[in-house]
Amino acid sequence: MAMRPNEFNGLAIDYLRENYMRKYEKVSKVYIPMIRNHHWFLLIIDTTPPGTLTYVDSEKDSIEHSARISQLNYAALFLERVLEDRNFIKHSPTKKPLISRFEFIEANPPQEVSHLWEGYFTEVDGQTRMRLALDLMMGTHNPKESEITGMAISTWDKIVGRATTKLKRKKKKQAEKELHPSPSISF
Questions:
Q1: Rounded Cα distance, 175 and 181, in Å
Q2: In this structure, is the dihedral angle defined by the CA atoms of residues 5, 9, 11 and 15, taken in order, positive or negative?
Q3: 117 shares its domain with 66
Q4: 54 close to 46: Cβ distance less than 8 angstroms
Q5: 46 and 92 in one domain?
Q6: Does residue 4 form part of some domain?
Q7: Per-residue pLDDT of the chain (187 residues; tens, 9 = 90+)
């Protein structure tokens, strides 16, 4: 959706708005983690007037700097485009926020020494992706967390139930073999 903001499905926006979002007036900050060339950085949008866009990067790179700033601006424009849907704004007379015109601030957090991490985070594997997905789904911020937990427990119970049934059958067969051993032939 974010990669093609002019092509997103209205039903997808309705779903996101109904299940995960608040009206614009009730939001004071939006945190958008971003990645470029295997490096994470953060855009913080503070919607309290006059509004600010804050770029936080713990490993600034002069070569990548302009590309990262472009990516931040793209995200701000995307959010501005989403807010064209008046259903995101509580009162219809509210003026559409021009997020892309908010003041831009470049934070200066302590910088990482990149060579210390060489070889550690070169590739994200399936286990890391699964851990991240679980953290996102199971976090207290997710209003569907209890529903997801219930479905997971139900599925687990079915799987364990099947495994328990198979184990009981296997033990029963072993017990029958011990009670009625097949005749052995000796020479």
A1: 10
A2: negative
A3: yes
A4: yes
A5: yes
A6: no
A7: 444 445 555 666 667 666 666 666 667 788 888 888 888 888 888 888 888 999 988 888 889 999 999 999 998 888 888 777 666 666 655 567 788 889 999 988 877 765 545 555 556 666 777 777 777 777 777 788 788 778 878 887 777 777 677 777 888 888 777 777 666 565 5
Please say which residue of 106, 123, 140 terminates a domain. 123
Number of Cβ within 10 Å of residue 45's Cβ equals: 21
Taking Cα atoms as reference points, which of 74, 40, 72, 43 lies closest to residue 59?
Answer: 40
Domain count, the chain: 2
Count CB neighbours of 95 within 10 A: 6
DSSP-derived pairing of the beta strands 52-56 and 39-46 = antiparallel
- Asked if residue 65 belongs to a domain, the reply is yes
pTM of the entire structure? 0.51
Q: Would residue 186 count as lying in a domain?
A: no
Same domain membership, residue 26 and residue 83: yes
